[in-house]
Amino acid sequence: MFNCSTVFKQNTLTSYLPNFMIRMALSHRIGAKTKLGTIAVPLFQTAARNFGIPTLSSYVTSLFTPMNGSHKMNFVERFVNFVNDLYDWLYLNNVMASYEEPIIVEAFGENFPPLKQIMRNVSLLFTNSNQFFEMPRPISNKIINIGGIVEMKVKELEPGTKAIVDNSRDGTVIVSFGTFADINSMKREMKMAFLEAFAHFPNYEFIWKVELSDEDAKVFAKYKNVHPVKWMDQKSLLMHPKLRAFVLHCGLNSVSEAVQFGVPILAIPLLGDQLYNAIMARVKGIAVQLDVGQLNGKGAEQLLADGLYKVLNDPSYRQNVKLLKQKFASTPFGAKDKLIRWVEFAAEFPT
């Protein structure tokens, strides 16, 4: 992975930028008349401030350290939210910029404008969010939500996976903690808590995306309804009629896919915006949320089993996610259409 300085110092890459723009500074450097921003998470405070959007701590929750509820905070929660916002403003908005500015100056000269100024002149900002999956907050017409821009076409499951799903008695549950979570670093006690919890549901098959050590593979082999796989066709599995639930870390793309295919969630957020996404899923009534910190000690197995039982047996979760699925599907302008139309508009009328 290239760091910021490495990217800027590659003259070959910089000369190729008309076709491959990296960040706002580079788009300004090549003279692009229309600048479009993208973020892979919901709108967060620093990005909002760059567009002059108010982010009042009294009711706009911090993305990376949200309150364990919604925008309806009590006094203490509002104070904590204010402190989180203050950190966000001091660090993300100022400290990080102080590290990046010298790199920009070294690459493009002393007369290059500050990053904040460039960001304020962005025509549009596309966020990986959806209006039906957000808390109330001030917004701008420059913010375009395109969350759920998922290709709905699915492929036939490979024979081994298809046999597992088709032969499951009560259904199948898929388990994935994303690309960056190293399951091998998970404490053995936590792995065993998951496996023992899954054993509470012998009529369900669990397909777990995980790379195992030889030692762990021997342990997993003892649990006949747990099937570890290095890769799985997540979308095709989510669309399968026998898919009953999704145990996940609540990365926004995976949450969007679960909603679009109408699958309830057992949410176990790990880092970044995942806690915010998990809270939103819980508030919308489509997920049971667990704290990963509680899965290291005694009672972890029962917590997981209880959470799974609710998701699998309480019909309200499936009803709520189906309603949200219908809203996603019936939006007057889909995410892909909005992206194309707004890009064309911004290109025609640069600001």
Structure description:
By secondary structure, the protein is of the alpha/beta class. It folds into two domains: 4-145, no CATH class; 159-330, Rossmann fold (3-Layer(aba) Sandwich), CATH 3.40.50. Helices cover 45% and strands 11% of the residues. It has 15 helices and nine strands. The protein has helices at 4-9, 11-15, 23-29, 45-50, 75-108, 115-120, 159-166, 188-198, 214-220, 234-239, 252-260, 274-283, 300-313, 315-330, 335-348; strands spanning 36-39, 124-127, 143-145, 171-176, 204-209, 226-229, 243-248, 265-267, 287-289. The strands form two sheets. It has a six-stranded parallel β-sheet with strand order 6-5-4-7-8-9, sandwiched between helices. Strands 1-2-3 form a three-stranded parallel β-sheet, with helices on one face. Helix 8 (188-198) links the parallel strand 4 and strand 5 (204-209). Helix 8 runs parallel beside helix 13. It is globular and about 65 Å long. The two termini are 33 Å apart. 33% of the residues are buried. Residues 1-22 have low confidence and may be disordered.
State the strand order across the main sheet. Answer: 6-5-4-7-8-9
Uncertain ranges: 1-22
Helix content: 40-55%
Domain module tally: 2
- What are the secondary-structure elements, in order, as H or E? HHHEHHHEEHEHEHEHEHEHEHHH
Shape designation: globular
Number of helices: 15
